[in-house]
UniProtKB/TrEMBL annotation:
IclR-ED domain mapped to chain residues: 80-266
Highest taxon, organism lineage: Bacteria
SUPFAM superfamilies: GAF domain-like, Winged helix' DNA-binding domain
Organism: Mannheimia succiniciproducens (strain KCTC 0769BP / MBEL55E)
Span of the signal peptide: none
Lineage, uppermost ranks: Bacteria, Pseudomonadati, Pseudomonadota, Gammaproteobacteria, Pasteurellales
Annotated protein name in UniProt: IclR protein
Length: 273
């Protein structure tokens, strides 16, 4: 939310309605303190004097956006803010949000772009862009159900789920976990190590685990709850990936995933409290 605060400050400088901008700034700051924030600390963070903050809080409280917290002298947001947020997110059309970002990446890299959503023990391909250069085409298609254990996007869903989920998934889907290529991971201990590495590096790679000759690099899409409900990937021939190196693609894929996550309300960990 650092970017939002910075933008609000810029708006305040260029706007005659300072009270509105300052009130919105206080709401944004309070969103980081679910148990309440003391007035003094709120004044320090917002860079406003205590009397101004107190006056703004009284107005926000009157309109039902803020209420006193349990700790004396502290304030917190009300469920009215949550209600507004839910209305906003329920009206979001994910395809409208992602398409400009993925189209730009497709034109920039020239490779196949995939986007999926999580559904229980599998993922569903909901968006795909064919490569703009070369003749390589993958077997993936919109509407396809993707196994989690053998795809880059699927491994992201496994990695960012609750710790106990992997063993539950492995037991429930034991009959579906099959060796598709010589690189497919079918042993639970190996997958556990793989997912630990994915969490550390923030991306996943399908090393010809689903289709010989094709590699995929995937990044998670975080929502406002910091959960991974969506994922995106770039498919590329393994020979080309070896020629270019993963760093040629990874930075641009990560930046695209982060931009989409921010539109979904994600708060980067560096500024979360």
């Amino acid at each position: 939310m650092f970017f939002i605060v910075r933008r609000l400050k810029e708006m305040e400088k260029n706007s005659g309605n300072q009270s509105l901008i300052r009130g919105l700034r206080l709401i944004e700051i309070l969103s980081r303190f679910p148990n309440g924030c003391p007035l003094v600390q709120l004044a320090n963070i917002s860079e406003l004097n205590k009397s101004t903050v107190h006056r703004l809080l009284q107005g926000l409280q009157q309109e039902g956006f803020v209420q006193p917290a349990i700790t004396v002298g502290s304030y917190r947001l009300t469920s009215k803010c949550l209600s507004i947020g839910h209305k906003i997110f329920s009206s979001l059309n994910i395809i409208n949000i992602i398409s400009p970002h993925l189209e730009n990446l497709n034109l920039d890299l020239g490779e196949t772009i995939n986007f999926s959503m999580r559904e229980n023990d599998h993922a569903i391909m909901i968006y795909k862009l064919e490569p703009t250069t070369g003749m390589m085409r993958t077997r993936a298609y919109i509407g396809q159900h993707l196994q989690l254990y053998c795809s880059a996007m699927g491994k992201l869903y496994l990695a960012y789920d609750r710790p106990a989920y992997l063993k539950e998934y492995w037991q429930t889907n034991n009959d579906n976990i099959q060796t598709l290529t010589c690189n497919t991971i079918t042993e639970l201990p190996v997958m556990e190590k793989e997912l630990d590495e994915i969490k550390k590096q923030g991306f996943a790679v399908d090393k010809e685990e689903n289709e010989i000759g094709i590699s995929c690099i995937a990044c998670p899409i975080f929502n406002f709850q910091n959960k991974v409900e969506y994922a995106m990937s770039v498919s590329i021939s393994t020979s080309k990936l070896n020629q270019y190196g993963i760093e040629h693609l990874l930075e641009k894929i990560k930046l695209t995933a982060e931009a989409i996550s921010l539109e979904l309300g994600w708060l980067p960990e560096s500024v979360q409290n």
